[in-house]
Write a sequence for this structure.
């Protein structure tokens, strides 16, 4: 049957990673009920299209990244260097007219380097807080797994609570606050793997992968990416973005859908020593809501969960790799292909 | 409704409301306890002085209204608002103490509903322009309460007065119907639109033919232009009653069976008279048939009374008792020679009483007598003035003078006062008789035919007998014979067909309200329950039955709710699974983990012929299972679609 339709990868066989989702999302993009319930689909489509022009041939990954942004989540991009991780995050930031900062993590980076520190001001005779590069709306953290655990942990509070505490004072981070982190595959030299708690903070982990031949040709023929980034115009204002983010939470998740979601969580907990956390469940729900909204629906379908499922679940299940010998991706894929839709 | 309250009480209420609108934005309020106490004392004193007492319905309701007005001035908190709404509901109930008209009931229902709207609106918080949502919530609540209302109406135990409260003072229930016929006493009623009684004819579906003379009271005592009835009427002796053995023959059997049965709903008037078509021959329970064949209630009628009575237009008495003849010929001393001469001139021409009667009628017809609502003042002894000079009068003038003239001419005569005509309501099939239809006529004793009705008014105003007074006046006004009593617009309005139909419909509904709803008393209730098989078998059985019924209802309700909430999603799922089985049969098997939208697309590709149906069913399923709002209609449609899918594919 799979052969007949050709949409499904056979369960258990890991795709090399170029095709980010095994589900036919592009076919599904128009939605079952093609009504624009919140009046935002047009904005989101224009936004996605603009980024897709820069990142050629990676529509699926781009859409996931947008969904992550709309669901108020943080994004982790894991891939080998040079496939466009930085370009993607810059395109996202520029298309939204958001303040953008890039931090390159290295093994000697200290928390104060990213959060900021208090410096004694001679003129005023007191300590003045100088905010670090984290005080921005889009923060690109390059090679997040090259920094030590200490610096990585400094991100925890900022990502979860949207504020940071230094010297007993709490500083609010700007809204929206969106962290895009890139990391190199674990097996590369000189990496400190992110702990589970840190990984759980990322709503999604996506992989870009090398483009297919035609896309790569288009890229080679096309303009310089850096030039293109400079010419990007904001598609919509911050206020519109916040509105869309609010609407994401209004997308209806019926009890039948929540049944399915909980079935997934239960299955993960039964099969693996540490299954998906409740936060993962929330992440799955919010990501699916964003996905449904992007497809112009006011309700979440099981297909939405399946579309974002691997991106949301894989990095949370990945630490089981020593036990099962399978990557998080495979585990997530197996889950989606075994838990029946109620 | 407020007619029975002192005028200042409702005025105070309205004033308090207006003041509240003025005070609230400025932050003024009735705050000081001393002031409140003084105001309450003043209110109490005012009520005492208005009614002379604090006891009774009207003072009690007034007290509530006045204290409510003061509460409005004092209230500020949410709690006080709720208390006021509750109190206002109690006031609505109090409205029924004062009147139970259909119109009042409608007004009170509207007030009740508006209070509910206010309460709902209050609890939802004030968002402008959201009047409809509390209104629809109110309608929903009232509709939900309706079955309970019906149930309580049918089953709630009645105190033997019935559903109608009879708390109102008897003093207020008086009619204008005169116990004494003096010049002007009936003309003064001509403008009254109060309802005297309503009558239906259970045996016929149309109005009986002929003039409708409703007999009220027979007056024997003549004082010239003034007549009066006996203070305590003597009942017709049982032996001489119609139909009794040895008495007069029952007309229903003796003649061609023309007894007319009537069911009469009499408005309370505080006196003893009861009415029936000319002439009743049997008395309903609680009444006697008085000498002169009219009904006389033993207790005064202080509440609406329904009774059934039979009349026959063709009662013939064979003989006049000597004492009756004597009473029917008795004359006052003040009869003038001119009157005697007039009467004697008739008897001299022809000694036959019938000819005398005709002569007298001819006299009224030919000598320029006029029929008028405002004939001017006459005194008791103004017979000469009326007969020979002014010659303007209303029915009581003609009846009184004619009867007196007959007595002078030696013919036994008496005056009957009652009602003439009334308006027949085709919708409700009843006669509505108003106080304005009050009429007086004469009866003379003719040896060959007994007491015979003679209406001298008809000699002066032909046509009055076949119409009720209002219609008669309408025609006269229209033909220019009579001065108009109303403005042209009102006359036009009342003559229009729509207005008339609406009025008749309203009266019919109002009659149904009075007879069916208010008349639903303990007896009717028991009869109804007995006919439903719930006879009164003692309290033990009753309690057991109630418990069993209540338990059964509870079980049904719980089961129904269970079914509604639980099975709905199950049914959707079962239907979808059926659809999937059918699709699998056709070659498109759904994987367990496959979402409905994905499957729809894949199945549509696999089964291109069915693609449209598959898409439609999937979309309906998604709408039912995952969308925020799904209606029952869709569920039914879904079931049909799934069935159709099977039927289609098998073909």
């Amino acid at each position: 049957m799979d052969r007949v339709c050709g949409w499904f990868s056979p369960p258990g066989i890991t795709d090399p990673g170029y095709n980010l989702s095994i589900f036919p999302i592009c076919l599904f993009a128009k939605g079952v009920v093609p009504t624009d319930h919140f009046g935002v689909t047009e904005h989101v489509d224009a936004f996605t299209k603009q980024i897709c022009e820069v990142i050629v041939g990676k529509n699926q990954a781009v859409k996931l990244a947008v969904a992550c942004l709309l669901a108020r989540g943080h994004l982790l991009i894991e891939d080998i260097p040079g496939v466009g991780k930085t370009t993607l995050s810059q395109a996202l930031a520029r298309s939204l007219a958001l303040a953008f900062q890039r931090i390159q993590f290295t093994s000697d980076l200290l928390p104060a380097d990213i959060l900021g520190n208090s410096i004694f001001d001679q003129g005023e005779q007191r300590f003045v807080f100088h905010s670090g590069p984290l005080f921005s709306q889009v923060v690109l953290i390059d090679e997040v797994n090259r920094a030590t655990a200490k610096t990585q942990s400094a991100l925890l509070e900022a990502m979860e609570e949207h504020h940071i505490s230094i010297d007993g004072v709490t500083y609010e981070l700007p809204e929206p606050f969106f962290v895009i982190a890139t990391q190199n595959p674990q097996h590369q030299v000189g990496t400190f793997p992110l702990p589970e708690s840190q990984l759980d903070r990322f709503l999604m982990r996506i992989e870009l992968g090398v483009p297919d031949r035609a896309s790569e040709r288009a890229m080679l023929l096309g303009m310089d990416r850096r030039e293109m980034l400079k010419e990007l115009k904001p598609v919509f204002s911050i206020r519109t973005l916040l509105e869309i983010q609010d609407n994401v939470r209004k997308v209806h998740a019926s009890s039948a859908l929540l049944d399915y979601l909980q079935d997934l969580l239960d299955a993960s907990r039964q099969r693996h020593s540490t299954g998906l956390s409740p936060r993962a469940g929330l992440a799955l729900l919010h990501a699916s809501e964003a996905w449904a909204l992007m497809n112009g629906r006011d309700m979440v379908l099981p297909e939405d969960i399946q579309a974002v499922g691997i991106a949301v679940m894989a990095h949370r299940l990945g630490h089981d790799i020593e036990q099962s010998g399978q990557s998080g991706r495979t585990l997530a894929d197996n889950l989606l292909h075994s838990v029946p839709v109620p | 409704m407020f007619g029975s309250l002192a005028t200042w009480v409702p005025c105070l209420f309205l004033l308090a409301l207006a003041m509240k609108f003025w005070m609230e934005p400025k932050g003024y309020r009735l705050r000081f306890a001393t002031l409140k106490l003084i105001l309450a004392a003043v209110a109490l004193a005012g009520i005492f002085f208005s009614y002379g007492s604090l006891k009774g319905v009207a003072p009690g309701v007034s007290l509530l209204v006045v204290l409510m007005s003061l509460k409005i001035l004092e209230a500020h908190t949410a709690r006080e608002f709720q208390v006021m709404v509750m109190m206002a509901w109690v006031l609505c109930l109090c409205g029924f103490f004062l009147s139970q008209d259909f119109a009042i009931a409608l007004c009170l229902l509207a007030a009740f509903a508006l209070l509910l709207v206010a309460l709902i609106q209050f609890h939802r918080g004030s968002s402008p322009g959201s009047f409809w949502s509390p209104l629809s919530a109110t309608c929903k609540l009232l509709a939900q309460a309706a079955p309970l209302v019906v149930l309580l109406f049918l089953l709630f135990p009645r105190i033997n007065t019935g559903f109608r409260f009879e708390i109102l003072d008897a003093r207020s229930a008086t009619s204008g119907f005169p116990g004494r016929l003096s010049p002007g006493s009936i003309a003064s009623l001509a403008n009254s639109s109060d309802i005297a009684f309503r009558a239906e004819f259970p045996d016929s579906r149309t109005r009986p033919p002929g003039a409708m003379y409703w007999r009220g009271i027979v007056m024997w005592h003549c004082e010239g232009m003034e007549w009066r009835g006996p203070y305590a009427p003597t009942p017709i002796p049982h032996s001489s009653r119609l139909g009794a053995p040895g008495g007069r023959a029952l007309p229903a059997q003796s003649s061609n069976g023309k007894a007319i049965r009537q069911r009469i709903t009499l408005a309370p008037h505080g006196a003893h008279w009861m009415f029936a078509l000319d002439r009743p021959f049997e008395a309903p329970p609680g009444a006697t048939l008085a000498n002169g064949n009219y009904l006389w209630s033993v207790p005064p009628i202080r509440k609406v009374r329904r009774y059934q009575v039979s009349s026959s237009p063709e009662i013939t008495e064979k003989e006049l008792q000597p004492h009756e003849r004597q009473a029917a010929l008795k004359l006052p001393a003040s009869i003038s020679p001119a009157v005697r001469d007039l009467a004697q001139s008739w008897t001299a021409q022809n000694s036959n009483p019938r000819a005398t009667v005709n002569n007298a009628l001819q006299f009224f017809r030919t000598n320029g007598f006029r029929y008028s609502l405002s004939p001017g003042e006459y005194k008791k002894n103004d017979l000469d003035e009326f007969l020979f000079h002014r010659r303007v009068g209303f029915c009581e003038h003609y009846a009184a003078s004619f009867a007196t003239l007959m007595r002078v001419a030696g013919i036994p005569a008496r005056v009957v006062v009652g009602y003439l005509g009334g308006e027949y309501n085709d919708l409700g099939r009843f006669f509505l008789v108003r106080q304005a239809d009050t009429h007086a006529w004469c009866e003379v004793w003719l040896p060959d035919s007994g007491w015979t009705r003679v209406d001298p008014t008809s000699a002066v105003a032909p046509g009055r007998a076949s119409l009720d007074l209002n219609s008669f006046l309408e025609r006269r006004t229209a033909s220019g014979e009579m001065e108009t009593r109303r403005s042209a617009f009102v006359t036009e309005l009342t003559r229009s067909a729509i207005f008339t139909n609406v009025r008749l419909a309203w009266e019919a509904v109002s009659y149904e309200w009075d007879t069916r709803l208010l008349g639903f008393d303990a007896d009717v209730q028991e009869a109804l329950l007995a006919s439903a098989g719930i006879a009164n078998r003692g309290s033990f059985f009753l309690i057991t039955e109630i418990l069993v019924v209540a338990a059964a209802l509870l079980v049904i309700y719980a089961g129904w709710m269970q079914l509604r909430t639980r099975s709905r999603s199950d049914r959707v799922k079962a239907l979808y699974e059926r659809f999937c089985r059918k699709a699998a049969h056709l070659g498109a098997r759904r994987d367990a983990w496959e979402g409905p939208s994905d499957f729809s697309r894949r199945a549509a590709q696999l089964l291109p012929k069915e693609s449209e149906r598959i898409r439609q069913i999937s979309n309906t399923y998604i709408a039912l299972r995952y969308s925020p709002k799904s209606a029952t209609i869709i569920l039914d449609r879904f079931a049909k679609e799934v069935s159709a899918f099977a039927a289609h594919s098998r073909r």
